[in-house]
Amino acid sequence: MGEGSITVEPFRETLFRHGLTLERDRTTTLQINVGYLCNQTCRHCHLAAGPNRREIMDLDTVEAVAAYAKRSHFETIDITGGAPELNPNLATLIERLSPLAPRIILRSNLSALNESSKIYLMDLLKQHRVVVVGSLPSLNESQADSQRGKDVFRNSIATLQRLNAVGYGQDGTGLELDLVSNPTGAFLPPPQPQTEARFRKVLEQKWDIRFNNLFSFTNVPLGRFLTWLQQSGNFEQYMRRLASSLNPCAVEGVMCRTLVSVSWDGYLYDCDFNLAKGYFMGGRKINVSEMPGPPERGSSIAVGDHCYACTAGLGFT
User: Fold this and answer.
1) 3-class SS at 179?
2) CB–CB of 136/32 below 8 Å?
3) Deepest in the core among 98, 249, 295, 309, taking most CB within 10 A?
């Protein structure tokens, strides 16, 4: 069963029916995907990242991305993967970017940061006051490991404890530690405040772990998650669930309106999900080295039916 068998109304037509358009506001965030190499093979991964992937940002592209950031004056720079920690040029990238934006974010699966060869990165992150956003889909060890791999949950808890020990998530340090939770199956996440309160209580009581914020994200039907949906017979039901949960108000706040994403090989996309889909920014293939500055306000955003995930419920911002 492929995406052509979706029984819901195409996302573009849904926008039109609601009298909505999806176009850029002022672009304030640069997201950088440094590659699909990862130490995990998560069932929900929209990029199908894993240990056997060879797509990885080289040093020349790192320098081109840093030059783009310098001429564009972004407020936030968001580094993601794969597991960014496995890119040997990550430290160079952080050092280049640190003076260029007031807020630098590293998205971590937590277990990669706990590998012995990567422990030095915690000092680097602290030195440059990088915000760490760690993925922790569940507080249940068996659920988390079934989605992400054997012993991943324990490694993630150990990483959070190490981050706390160097000051992350602690009052008064200014070192921000945020968590991301997502469902372990073909359903939508519960309300974010409810999830944050539960995570805060359990993590502190059981492991003495503290964090700043928690974000609940909807799984996007792309990559390995799409394959799982199709193989498990959940695809059409999940798409109908996303479409029926569409919140027109969430369209105004979706991240693609204020974000531009650069891939491991230097090409620009409206978001990391469009990167996974192969939809270039605004439908035009352009390399970061050719881009004079942020995308123009009012320019078009490429959309597909996967965009339902970003507008379901409270949205994916």
Assistant:
1) strand
2) no
3) 309
Helix axes 141-148, 152-165, angle to 10 degrees: 110
**Structure token pair of residue 85:** 């920690």
52-90 residues labelled b (16+ CB within 10 A) or e (exposed): ebebbbbeebbebbbebbeebebebbbbbbbbbbbbebb
Q: Which residues are within 8 A (CB) of 263 and not within 5 positions of it... i.e. 6 or more apart?
A: 33, 269, 275
| Tens-level pLDDT at each residue, the chain (317 residues) | 344 444 678 999 999 998 988 899 999 999 999 999 999 988 889 999 999 999 999 999 999 999 999 999 999 999 999 999 999 999 999 999 999 999 999 999 999 998 878 888 999 999 999 999 999 988 988 877 777 777 889 999 999 999 999 999 999 999 999 999 988 788 899 999 999 999 999 999 999 999 999 999 999 999 999 999 999 999 999 999 999 998 888 888 899 999 999 999 999 999 999 999 999 998 899 999 999 999 999 999 999 999 999 998 754 44
- Read off the tokens for 167: 């000051």
Give per-residue burial for 102-137: e unless 16+ CB within 10 Å, then b.
Answer: eebbbbbbbbbbbeeebeebbebbbeeebbbbbbbb
Q: Give the Cα-Cα-Cα angle 313, 282, 107 (nearest 5 degrees).
A: 55
Give domain limits for the chain.
27-234+253-302
Instruction: Give the integer Cα–Cα distance in Å for 116 and 44.
Output: 26
| Tokens found for residue 12 | 């573009």
According to DSSP H, which parts of the chain are helical?
A: 11-17, 59-72, 90-97, 120-127, 141-148, 152-165, 192-207, 223-232, 235-244, 272-277, 308-311
- CB of 117 closer than 8 Å to CB of 39: no
The dotted CATH code for 27-234+253-302 is 3.20.20.70
